């Protein structure tokens, strides 16, 4: 059985962007920085999208540096650009949960 499940906890690299389309659909985009020390030191900045975010998420004060937890699936997206066909892997979120501001202190000790 195949499974595509991604769970990330990290910090926002930038403030999220909300796009609204003529159809009424809304797209919430963010970059989440994930730091790891094991098995080697590594920092990844992961693009995350969430379609039609709940009002409760939009009401949160989401700025650069705010911790979030993301649950979703990895997806490769393709598009045409002046330079030719482009692609990238991003996380299409089912849920984005802001972590309490003091959660970082709780997780580090």
Number of continuous helical runs: 2
Oligomer: single chain
Beta-strand residue fraction: over 45%
What do we call the CATH topology?
Answer: OB fold (Dihydrolipoamide Acetyltransferase, E2P)
* Radius of gyration, in angstroms, nearest whole number: 15 Å
CATH class: Mainly Beta
From N to C, what is the helix and strand string?
Answer: EEEEHEEH
What is the H level of CATH, i.e. the homologous superfamily? Answer: Nucleic acid-binding proteins
Query: What strand order characterises the main sheet?
Result: 1-3-4-6-5
- CATH architecture tag: Beta Barrel
- Helical residue percent? 10-25%
Low-pLDDT ranges: none
How can the largest sheet be summarized? 5 strands, mixed, barrel
Approximate shape:
globular
Mean pLDDT level: 91
Structural class comes to mainly beta
Integer count of domains: 1
Distance between the termini: 38 Å
Query: What is the count of β-strands?
Result: 6
């Amino acid at each position: 059985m195949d499974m595509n499940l991604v769970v990330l906890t990290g910090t926002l690299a930038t403030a999220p962007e909300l796009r609204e389309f003529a159809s009424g659909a809304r797209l919430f985009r963010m970059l989440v920085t994930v730091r790891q020390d094991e098995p080697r030191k590594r920092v990844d900045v992961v693009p995350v999208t969430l379609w039609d975010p709940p009002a409760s998420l939009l009401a949160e004060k989401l700025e650069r540096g705010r911790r979030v937890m993301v649950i979703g699936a990895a997806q490769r997206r393709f598009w045409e650009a002046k330079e030719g066909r482009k692609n990238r892997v991003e996380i299409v979120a089912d849920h984005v949960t802001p972590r309490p501001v003091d959660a970082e202190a709780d997780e580090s000790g």
